[in-house]
Amino acid sequence: MGWAWSVAMDTTRRPRPDDRPQRPTAAAFFDVEGTLLAAPDLAGATGPLGRLWHPPVLAALHGHAALGHLVVLVSPASAAELEPVVQHLAPDAVLCSRPRAPMIGQGKGYAARALLREHAILAARCYAYADEAADLPLLAEVGHPVVVGDDPVLLRHARRGNWRRLPAAESRPR
Question: What distance lies between CA 129 and its chain's CA centroid?
Fold first, then answer.
């Protein structure tokens, strides 16, 4: 299946080997740079992806996929820059930047809300994994936000909201 473009955001739907025709009842959003990958941006990441994965977040992604959750990658990168990650992980959807419509800050929250509405999924049943304060709008859209790393702004929210935490990704050579 090829790229499917939406008016509000760039998305893609890729079949997974375990794809079922039933409608998902939950979604899991994964910020890519610094969260799923131990790299601050995809443009500077070179070499095999295997060295860049953040193991606890990658394990969470596979766990959500096994539960039949809609797996969504979220990134300020373009669709072309994300293609190697998409090919490797085969997510259900990708929310990424397009010309004059960057996928950053509040845009991530709006895009997540639109995707949940499109799939009729309750936000309270959903998860989001992110590593920096700019991702707060994404984390605020779901019932189960997960802070990855030690961003002080996110840690304050995590303490107040009893959010789950995962360790920061190790910096790895590129």
Answer: 6
- Lookup: tokens for 92: 């259900």
- Listed residue (43, 42, 22, 20) closest to 33, CA to CA: 42
Facing residues of 10 across strands? Answer: 5, 96
Instruction: Summarize pLDDT for 11-21 with one digit per residue, the tens.
Output: 444 445 555 55
What span, in angstroms and rounded, lies between the C-alpha atoms of 168 and 163?
Answer: 15
Ordered by where they begin, the domains of the chain are: 3-16+24-161 (3.40.50.1000)
CB atoms within 10 A of CB 101: 13
Provide the token pair at 45: 């990441």
Considering the entire predicted model, what is its pTM? 0.85
Burial class (CB in 10 A: 0-12, 13-18, 19+), 7: exposed
